[in-house]
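just leaving the lab so this will be short. below you get a single protein, a line of residues and a line of whole numbers that encode the local backbone shape. id like you to explain what the token line says about the fold, in plain words if possible. thanks a lot i owe you, the record is right below:

…
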Amino acid sequence: MGCQLQDCADHKMGLPISKLKGWIIEQEINPFVDQWEAAGQFPAHKIFKILGSAGFLGVNKPIGQCESVPQRVCAVCLAEYGGLGLDFSYSVAVSEELGNIRCGGIPMAIGVQTDMATPALARFGSPELKKEFLVPTIMGDKVSCLGVSEVGAGSDVASIMTKAVRKGDEYVINGGKMWTTNGTQADWMCLLANTSDGPPHKNKSLICLPMSLPGIHITRKIDKMGMRSSDTAEVFFDDVRVPCKNIIGQEGMGFTYQMLQFQEERLWGVANILTMMDNIIQDTIQYTRQRKIFKQAVLHHQYVHFRLAELHTEVELLRSLLYRATGLYIKGNDVTKLASMAKLKAGRLAREVGDSCLQYWGGMGFTNDVLVSRFYR
């Protein structure tokens, strides 16, 4: 089969971002967001297949080689892994564009697929694991989730209690995971579990866990204040058996691998919220131009004008921090500190932007008819 895509170098000149926004977001996602928000779930397999077919789920993942023309990227040939082989800055660009989706839950779910459940697999996984789990995830044929947080261990990852005990050629898994994004629809989980009784930072491993195995129970779909269209599950494991070959990289290195995954997760999340904040501020500017109080547009009251300018400035400062951290990361630097700073600032600024802008919408801001209300939640 001949190659049907351009040379890899051509792809590195830029991703078809206009296709992502103009077609996928505006035609396949945004018209249905209200419906999915009300239902508490969006059709992950359908949307991920659209994104995967367009190349947006494996932007910085390993490329496949065209059989007929060496050194060419080819999604339709017998690709080895199916990614585009670009650096992480391209993932940041995609994340920013996904911020145009008119809710937070769907972009978050996509981020789990691209930059939260798969970085360690792409970097440390065996060729067999990549072919079984990474390739179909990049192509959108499988939905992934990340199993780290537990009822008693969220931010304190070292305190997880889920165990995977080796018995022959298998691990037997018992325990549970909480706040599992994509959990009710996922085909496989990147699971962090204790595989020995050693020190808490050296006794954990990441395991590719098919969600169809006996003993895996979705105990409930969590009803959340926000991120409504993203399904979030509590998962329970009862003597789940998985082959030892499903371990990612080395046994006992799971904590380290997960901390590395968190770098990309944090940067991706910051990039995604930047565009959302930009849109909320712009929506608020447009609305306050039309809404009048004391015989003049709300925007023309000096305090409102200054406050919106201040918020916009804060967003741009955060963008600069993100780009600095990303630039260092793609050069091979450890950006744990900067990525953590960016995530901290993004979380606080998102709340500040949401609350401040909501005030200028008056009574409309208290309804579900406007995006700022959803953003606030």
